[in-house]
Amino acid sequence: MQNLPNNKKIILFDGVCNLCNGAVQFIIKNDKKDIFRFVALQSELGKEICNYIGIDQNKIDSIILYNPGVAYYYKSSAVLEISEDLGGIYNLLIIFKILPEKLRNYIYDYIAKNRYKWYGKKESCMIPTPELKTKFL
């Protein structure tokens, strides 16, 4: 896929979800090594990336971590890979890798299913501030 930075990992997220937007802000704040770039799943580029890696957006209710040319992860595996890349204390979350992925994803899916009810939803995707624009593709 062209026009993607090959030295950055791309996080695709639900651009209208308040929980997801909070997670993106948290990752940006803690991304000391400038590893990540962000794309809303609802954007044209988000749809294009999903098509490219073979994910049906109508069947996905998840965060996706895409490492261009290497691999992609979604649901709990994406969260754990992101926490590992953030390093520091967040590295401790990798202990959850001992749990079967099916169990981790069951918990992830429960939260994902209720995220709008618990955290709310925006009318449109977040518009990044000028300082944060470089973090978004």
Automatic annotation (TrEMBL):
Enumerate the InterPro entries for this protein. DCC1-like, DCC_oxidoreductase
**In the record, what terms sit under GO molecular function?**
protein-disulfide reductase activity
Which chain positions lie within coiled-coil regions? none
Could you tell me the superkingdom of the organism this chain comes from? Bacteria
- Report what the protein is called: Thiol-disulfide oxidoreductase
